[in-house]
Amino acid sequence: MEYRKDIDGLRAVAVIPVILYHSGSEFFIGGYLGVDIFFVISGFLITSILAHDLSHNKYSIMRFYERRARRILPALFSVLFVTTVIAYFMLGPEELKSYSQSLVSVNGFASNIYFYLTSGYFATASEELPLLHTWSLAVEEQFYVIFPILMSILWFSRKSLLSTLFILSGASFITCLILIDSDPSANFYLLPSRAWELFVGAIVALNYQTLAAVKSNTRQILSALGIFLLIFSLTVLNKNLAHPGFPTLLPVIGTLLIIAFAKNTFTAQILSIRPLVFIGLISYSLYLWHQPIFAILRIKSLDSPSDLAFLLAITLSLIAAWLSYRIIESPFRQKDFLNQKQIFTLSVIGLLFFITIGILGHLYKGWPQRFQVDFDFSSIDFSPERYSCHANFGVGPPPANPCIFNAKLTKNNWAVLGDSHGVELSYALGKQLREKTAVQQLTYSGCPPAIEFETPVKGCHEWMVKALEYLVENSQVTHVLLAFRHTTYISKPHGELNRPRKVLSQKEEASKEELHALYWQSFELIIKKLKDSGKQITVLFPTPEPIADIKKLTTPNTIFNVTLNQSLLNRPKGQFDNFASYANDNLERLVKKYAISSLKPAVQLCDDSYCHSVINGKAVYFDNNHLSNFGASLVLEQISQ
Question: What is the CB neighbour count within 10 angstroms for residue 160?
Answer without folding.
Answer: 12
